[in-house]
Write a structure and sequence with these properties.
This protein has about 270 residues and is α+β, with helices and mostly antiparallel strands. It contains eight helices and ten strands. The strands form two sheets. A seven-stranded antiparallel sheet has the order 1-8-5-10-4-2-3.
């Protein structure tokens, strides 16, 4: 099971644990309402390193929000440590997210529209080629699934879009860090990953015609995926918890599958 999980994740599969719910206390269950989120946003966030929580509406039980999200961060960390112990210290925990708003029908710009197929990249927090892994749990109290589309393999996406992407402008990464657009200096890998994300979402014909499959995640299920590698779109669903992790490429069992390694092979040079 452990070896299958590692191989599947790194190959670009979605690993589903269909009967692994995350139980909520009565106070936490009361948060399953879109009014729990601050107006104008779709997500409550929690930083496990600092304990900071933000994005919840005024009047919401802040202690319940923090308790739920801190428990989920610990739950997913323990899950991955048990399922993939080989990652060890190379796997770093990031922010926790709570999404009580229906994914379908939100009015957003294309770049922020997660119902469009895309691969993930951090605009303000350069990853320098590190992997982005996310663990999700559908905590809907009824029977509503969270519905995804899953698209082409990463290498196919890169072959389609990479030739159209210009190299980063010399000095631009240093300038973006200087003026505060990014928290650290972007690498060439960050530039290309962000461009792939944007070009996928902005290409209407691609979104209409690209081969994909639909996957439904039932309430009480947990799933994990390298979202920097797997082309995905959250089409509908409500009440999900999500935990972000980053992984050093050298900590992988099969580092040749990492997007940065794929891009480096295609460009014929190092991008970090």
């Amino acid at each position: 099971m452990k070896r299958d999980a590692v191989d599947g994740l790194e190959r670009g599969d979605v690993v589903l644990l269909p009967n692994l719910p995350f139980a909520l206390s009565p106070a936490e269950a009361a948060l399953l309402d879109p009014s729990s989120v601050k107006q104008g946003t779709k997500t409550v966030k929690y930083d496990p390193d600092t304990g900071r929580v933000w994005g919840y509406a005024e009047g919401v039980d802040a202690a319940a929000v923090k308790s739920m999200m801190a428990r989920y961060a610990d739950y997913t960390r323990r899950l991955l440590d048990a399922l993939i112990p080989t990652y060890g210290a190379a796997l770093k925990i990031g922010n926790t997210s709570f999404r009580p708003v229906e994914a379908q029908g939100r009015d957003q710009s294309k770049r922020h529209d997660d119902t469009l197929l895309h691969v993930d990249a951090f605009p303000s927090r350069p990853s320098h080629g590190q992997r982005i892994m996310r663990v999700f749990t559908n905590v809907h109290p009824g029977a509503k699934p969270r519905v995804w589309r899953v698209g082409e393999p990463f290498e196919t996406v890169a072959e389609r879009f990479l030739p159209k992407i210009a190299a980063p402008i010399p000095g631009s990464a240093k300038l973006m860090k200087l003026v505060g657009i990014t928290k650290s200096q972007r690498s060439a890998a960050d530039h290309y990953m962000l461009q792939l994300h944007d070009r996928m979402k902005l290409d209407d014909e691609y979104q209409r015609t690209v081969p994909h499959r639909t996957v439904e995640f039932a309430p009480g299920s947990t799933w994990m995926v390298f979202t920097d590698q797997v082309s995905h779109a959250a089409m509908s669903g409500q009440h999900a918890l999500e935990q972000t992790f980053t992984l050093e490429v050298d900590g992988m069992a099969h580092p040749e599958h990492a997007p940065v390694r794929v891009l480096e092979r295609m460009k014929g040079k190092k991008l970090r």
